[in-house]
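User: Hello, beginner here. Can you help me understand these amino acid letters and fold codes? It all follows right here:
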Amino acid sequence: VVVRGPMGAGATALAAAFAAEAARDGAEVHYRAGGSGPRIEATAAPWRGTSLLVLDHPTPNDPGDPHASTGSGHDGMPSATLTLRLVGHLAAVPAGAEVLDLTPLSPMAVREIVAQHVGPSEVDDATAEVLARSGRWPGAVHDAAADVARTRARRLVEAAVAVTGTSSAELAAARADIA
């Protein structure tokens, strides 16, 4: 299965959640990041039972990729029951592959995420700001929501410090007047 979407679309998080569920159900889970992860050697012993192979942005001819350009894609590799191939949103899809194209979140889903970061009275304004900044892609939504929450919290602290500073100065002046 090819899982296709731009950076921040949630493909890796989706694959991680799926892999965790598969592992809980007893599947053998293998992960390979394109060009940088641990290599799955052609001499590896056959995988027992149900197995999941996650190929995160595989490079051409990546070992274990059933859609590698070498033809069979396995060349003596252990065979996975299911392979998730995480690719960019413009990546070509191998012939015969099932494809899951990731899409942006709905405005309501964005609002739910924003509500985890700000108070109820700020959700509408913060959601509008996050929608404008994020393109509704999950990674960007989470980053923008956290940034909006930090900015709002910083403004509250700065306002409190200003009031406290003014109050302290007034108190010091009043003490001086009394003395």
